[in-house]
Amino acid sequence: MIVNEDDLALAKAGEFGLPRNLDGMSVESLKDYRVALEQEIKHVDNALTHRKGAAAGAEALFKN
Q: Which pTM does this prediction carry?
């Protein structure tokens, strides 16, 4: 069975309630939603940076 990467990404997104149904949303609501998503991406990026730093510190500690 061949698995499509797009299908996997869509399934993973579904775990987080994505994609959201945008039908019926006003232009203003769509803009607000986009801003909220951009803020969430920044939040996730910060968490990833923090975790990478913590993992690197742990690796350095245990290498010695």
A: 0.67
